[in-house]
Specification:
With about 350 residues, this protein is an alpha/beta fold. About 40% of the residues lie in helices and about 20% in strands.
Length: about 350
């Protein structure tokens, strides 16, 4: 396997390493990943996260296992175990489908390695295309807002929504970014803020419930978010809190342009609309308190009942535009079935 390098994933001398994102921003620790069980744990604990990165990490792990002598039957079984690791992120399913085709080849070892490497390279290219399309929307001196983490930590390339924002910054557009902290796991506060500092993007961190005030004051000109799955009608699932921002609802009320940025590998034509997108329910302790490199703090009663969906669904009617690697699409385009035409 080639030596590959991304912000959260890398291969070196045929071995796979994952950056432990639960320790960011204060510790950078690379974990040597060798088994399917370990990869599932990394994904479920969000040590590896972001829909594209999850799919690529699982693919690279299967390629590694093939080089270690695992049989076709074992690799097929492992692919199904990995598929169940996070139900909402459709990139995982799409990448594993590609890997299963490679596993069935006669020279399956070479085929699985080549497939995983191609998926990695594809995501790098898709991220760059999304960044170029999306950055063209950004006007000089705009104040942008984003939710969750959609940068290099979540992909093999420059990211989805944060990739757009970073390219606009690199183009000298003098942007300013509001970063939602993203409760309950603080991906914005821990990860996006860290990436912005690495990239030199001017940003300010806010609590999620401060976004409405900023929009009411006219201090948000445009919003970019990512997605874990886009349904055929344009509805999309993203980190919980996206719908309320509509970063969809708020944006719609305050007439702030709201864009979802995702590669075509996030489109799931098998989902007619957002109502059938599976939504992962996570551990109650994520809401009862907070944990990280600093340890764990519990602020609610230990037995407090908790509702903790990892994602919510934003209706297509609240989206200004869909920024994909193939272009930017309006509500009229989506209503006319452009996703089916492009990817069906």
């Amino acid at each position: 396997m080639k030596n590959l390098s991304a912000l959260s994933l890398k291969t070196h001398q045929g071995e796979l390493y994952v950056l432990d994102q639960t320790l960011l921003p204060h510790q950078q620790q690379w974990l040597h990943c060798t088994t399917v069980t370990q990869m599932v744990t990394l994904i479920q604990r969000l040590q590896l996260r972001g829909a594209p990165a999850i799919g690529i990490g699982a693919s690279l792990l299967l390629a590694y296992r093939a080089t270690q002598g695992d049989s076709q039957a074992q690799l097929q079984k492992d692919a199904e175990i990995l598929r169940a690791a996070r139900p909402t992120a459709v990139n995982l399913m799409n990448n594993l489908d590609s890997m299963l085709e490679a596993i069935q080849q006669t020279d399956f070892v070479s085929a699985t390695v080549a497939c995983a490497e191609a998926l990695f390279a594809e995501d790098v290219a898709l991220c760059q295309l999304m960044a170029e399309y999306g950055a063209a929307l950004v006007q000089p001196n705009e104040q942008l807002l984003t939710h969750c983490n959609t940068g290099g930590l979540a992909t093999a390339g420059v990211g989805t929504a944060l990739g757009v924002i970073n390219l606009a910054h690199q183009q000298g557009k003098n942007i300013r970014l509001w970063v939602d902290e993203t409760r309950p796991l603080l991906q914005g506060g821990r990860l996006t803020a860290w990436e912005c500092q690495q990239l030199g993007i001017p940003y300010q961190l806010i609590c999620d419930n401060m976004a409405a005030m900023l929009m009411a004051r006219g201090q948000v000109d445009r919003i970019f978010v990512g997605s874990d799955r886009i349904a055929a009608n344009g509805d999309f699932a993203n980190k919980v809190g996206t719908y309320s921002l509509a970063v969809a609802v708020l944006a719609h009320y305050h007439q702030v342009p709201f864009y979802v940025v995702a590669p075509h590998t996030t489109v799931d034509l098998a989902c007619a609309d957002g109502s059938v997108i599976p939504i992962e329910q996570r551990n109650a302790d994520e809401v009862r308190g907070v944990s990280g490199a600093f340890g764990q703090t519990l602020w609610a009663p230990e037995e407090a009942p908790v509702f903790n969906p990892a994602f919510d669904v934003t209706p297509a009617s609240l989206v200004t535009g869909w920024v994909l690697d193939t272009g930017i699409y309006s509500q009229q385009d989506i209503s006319a079935g452009v996703l089916q035409q492009l990817f069906g």
